[in-house]
Amino acid sequence: MKNFIQRAITGIIFVAVLIGCIIGGPLSFGALFCLISALATAEFCHLMNQQEGVQVNRNICVLGSVALFLCFFFYGMNPAETGIFIPYLAILIYLFISELYLKKQNPINNWAYAMFSQLYVALPFALLNVLAFQSIGTESISQYLFILPLSIFIFNWVNDTGAYCTGMLLGKHPLFKRISPKKSWEGSIGGCVFSIAAAFALAHFFPILSTAAWVGLGITVVIFGTWGDLAESLMKRQLGIKDSGNILPGHGGMLDRFDSAIMAIPAAVVYLYVLTLC
After folding, report:
1. Residue 174: left (phi > 0), alpha (psi -120 to 50), or beta?
2. Where are the alpha helices (DSSP H) in 117-244?
């Protein structure tokens, strides 16, 4: 009972802060996800450094993660400023060159995990800016649209809730028994149905996309969010851990809370880009 109350309070605060900062405008949005990106990257590097023969430079990886988010953030606000990515490129170059002089046990492992921290953690959070900032006309002017980045989390929350309820009632066939035996096909289908209902609600209140486009976005987030969840479960099984961290009481670490979003965000960006081509 105590754990349930702790989990509920943490969850309510977490959702309130996330929604509040996203709808609060560009500055609160940017500050929140800079912090989340930094914490998630630090958590990832800490986990990797527990493995034999791995000594990733956690501080530089965190710096790179924040720099990448800020590059996308400022580029979103001012698309004419293309040189904004140069500092991040300098950080990547440093991560490679520094291994020549540090004389660590396995520099190849360090390179691989350092780059993976940027690809797996930093890039998805940075891509939230692609959803948040939309160009107006042909001029290099952007407007901040909170609903697109927020919708990723709404779809994930609705999918998780729907999948849990449906799975508890009807779940019989394992979705991916080798990695996550508690997930069922029935739960996943139920979560998808709930997310489609949420898409209709978003289309009604935020007609920046057509109803069909909102439904497609919801399905995209559900499918890739599920894969993101499974990918993190596979990583934790490989590492022999239950939670990626303990920063959120009752909920584990940052990677535990954002595992679905980490894969859903890039997929949503691709989906919306394809829409513009059609």
Report:
1. beta
2. 123-132, 147-170, 185-205, 211-239
- Helix 147-170 and helix 185-205: axis angle, to 10°? 150
Beta-bridged to residue 252, according to DSSP, are: 248
Cα(17)–Cα(94) distance, rounded to whole angstroms? Answer: 35
Q: What is the DSSP string of 86-110?
A: HHHHHHHHHHHHHHHHH--S-HHHH
Residue holding tokens 């996330």?
18
Query: In whole angstroms, what is the distance from residue 149 CA to residue 32 CA?
Result: 13
Q: Give the model confidence (pLDDT) of 147-206 as tens digits.
A: 999 999 999 999 998 888 888 888 677 877 788 778 888 888 989 999 999 999 999 999
Residues 64, 41: Cα–Cα separation, whole Å: 9
In the chain, % helix, strand, coil (3-state, to 5) comes to 75, 5, 20
